[in-house]
Each structure stands twice: as structure tokens, then as C-alpha cells.
Amino acid sequence: MEAFTVLQGVAAPLLRANINTDVIIRIERLRDLEKADLGRYAFEAWRYRRDGSEDPAFVLNKPPFREARIMIAGDNFACGSSREAAVWALQSFGIRCVIAPSFGPIFYNNCFQNGVLPVIVPTKVVEDLAAEVEATQGEGRVVVDLARCVVVAPGGKETPFSVDALLREGMLKGLDQIELTRAREPQIRAFQARDRERRPWLYPLP
């Protein structure tokens, strides 16, 4: 998993509430495609017309938002089914961070297993950030600093956010939860040795 420390880039505003994972990636696209190919079909129903051409009105089809690394989203982003492929589709498109007032809980946890950072900030902050990005026609860059846990708007205003300490550590180091556990193997073995001496009846005989 790619480590996440500081990300600076184009932020695409998509302030629709309750966008579900089926909108992010349709279930039939998961049958034949590899993870790396899903980005082409992210938000497929909104990005493309029935004839397959791009809808120029959709934000991710507009320059410079088609190069977005950050998404500014509405409340309850990625609710619905528990498909991890919703994260894969965003990642394949190029999105490494989603800023929203709230997330579907399963999607939120899946993000940390795949190197995409979900950032929760108040609705007013999301709305102001989106308005500032739109006012600069996407030219103003947003900074997401996980080391300091702040979002920096194009004009320089900083907004703090919080992340669970263990999840933050994994993102900073590029490790999922299994890899974080394995990194603590010396401490685990030391604990087991001490515990075996203290409570030998809990351990099978060699």
C-alpha cells in the first residue's frame, strides 16, 4: 500500500448527499475487470451518456477536475453495499483522498486498507472548501497533511481533522492492519514469553 503523508492537488467538488457505492462502481463491472481498470467506470452513470460519450456537465469530465487527486463530497458518502471495489474505482481514477462530513462506515474502513484517506470535517467546511475550489475553476490546490492532520484550503485556511491513531500510523507507513500487526511481532513474542511463564497452564506442552 502506498504511504500517505502530504497530498497537494486538484480537488473535485461533488456535494451530493448519500452517494452510494453502486453509483461509484456498478456491480456488473466487477465481473471481468482488474482493480487497476475500474477507474474508467467510476461514476459511470453520471460521467457518460447513453451513447457512451462523456457528459461535459459532470464535474470529473471538466478540466482540470478530470485530474483530481482529492474529492470534496457530500454527507454520507459511499453508503449502501459493502463493496471494497468502490475504493478501488476511486483509486484507479486517481483519487487518494475524500473530504466529506460523513461516510458510509464500511467504505470508511475499506479506505484505510487501500491507501485512500477519508477525511471528516464539518459540513460548513466542506461547503466553503468546495466554493473556493469552484471560484478558482479548480486551479486552487488543496493540501491534505496527514502528518499534521490538517486540510489547507487554496487560500491558506487550515482545518484540523482527527483520525484513529492506529489507522493514521498505517496510512503514514503504507501498512494495512495485518502488516501493522506483523510489524509488532517482537513485542508479541515477548508478551507471549512473559505470559507463558506467568500462566503456563494456558499453553500446550511442546
What does this molecule look like?
- This protein is α/β, with parallel strands linked by helices.
- The protein has one domain (6-164): Alpha-Beta Barrel (Aconitase, domain 4).
- 33% of the residues lie in helices and 15% in strands.
- It has 8 helices and 8 strands.
- It has helices at residues 21-24, 44-47, 85-93, 105-112, 123-135, 165-173, 177-182, 185-198, and strands at 6-9, 11-14, 70-73, 97-100, 117-120, 142-145, 150-152, 158-160.
- A 4-stranded antiparallel sheet has the order 1-6-7-8, with no helix packed on it. Strands 2-3-4-5 form a 4-stranded parallel sheet.
- Strand 4 (97-100), helix 4 (105-112) and strand 5 form a beta-alpha-beta unit.
- The protein is globular.
- The mean pLDDT is 93.
Entry summary:
With 206 residues, the protein is of the alpha/beta class. Helices cover 33% and strands 15% of the residues.
Q: Secondary structure elements and their pairing?
A:
Blueprint: E1 6-9, E2 11-14, H1 21-24, H2 44-47, E3 70-73, H3 85-93, E4 97-100, H4 105-112, E5 117-120, H5 123-135, E6 142-145, E7 150-152, E8 158-160, H6 165-173, H7 177-182, H8 185-198
Parallel strand pairs: 2-3, 3-4, 4-5
Antiparallel strand pairs: 1-6, 6-7, 7-8
Which regions have little confidence, pLDDT < 50, spanning 5+ residues? none
Do you know the CATH architecture?
A: Alpha-Beta Barrel
Q: Order of strands side by side in the largest beta sheet?
A: 1-6-7-8
CATH superfamily: Aconitase, domain 4
Work out the count of structural domains: 1
In the CATH hierarchy, what is the class?
A: Alpha Beta
Proportion of β residues? 5-15%
- Quick one: biggest sheet? 4 strands, antiparallel
List the secondary-structure elements in sequence, H or E.
EEHHEHEHEHEEEHHH
What is Rg? 20 Å
**CATH fold assignment:** Aconitase, domain 4
Count of beta strands: 8
Report the principal-axis shape: globular
In angstroms, what separates the terminal alpha carbons?
A: 38 Å
Helix content estimate: 25-40%
Secondary structure category: alpha/beta
Number of helices: 8
Mean pLDDT: 93
